[in-house]
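Materials and Methods. Structural model of Mavicyanin. The 145-residue sequence of Mavicyanin from Noccaea caerulescens was retrieved and submitted for structure prediction as follows.
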Amino acid sequence: TDDKNFFVGDSLIFDYDKTSFNFDDVTEVTGRLEFEYCDPTAAKAVHKTGHDVVTLTEPGIHYFINSAPGKCNAGQKLRVLVLSDPSYHASIPRPSDPPSSGKVFKVGDSNGWTAKADPMWYEGKNFVVGDSLLFQYEKDLDNVV
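The predicted structure was written out as tokens:
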């Protein structure tokens, strides 16, 4: 979608066979970290009809993933930049993603944030200002205080 212009009021149509095991849903997630790590727990919306029409109602970057385990990691995800006014598209170059201000570290590494997580997961890592910590956990079992 990097070569496409999308504007507020445009619609995305996701057509897929909902009975197929290749595509289970379209989940709009809240941000870049959820998109990069294929984390559907903070979903803004979940669509499952097989013919999902998503109207883009606000400018900014919108993130869509397949929430089925392994599907998003295999590439079933979409990032869309939505601009506010179509009259500007001819005169203003398409903005790129803001530069990353640092690395993203998943707390607990592959185990995530659990009671059984290795308390020394951070050894050997160099944290600097601008880095982010991603806490991925089961909301009914664990928390971050």
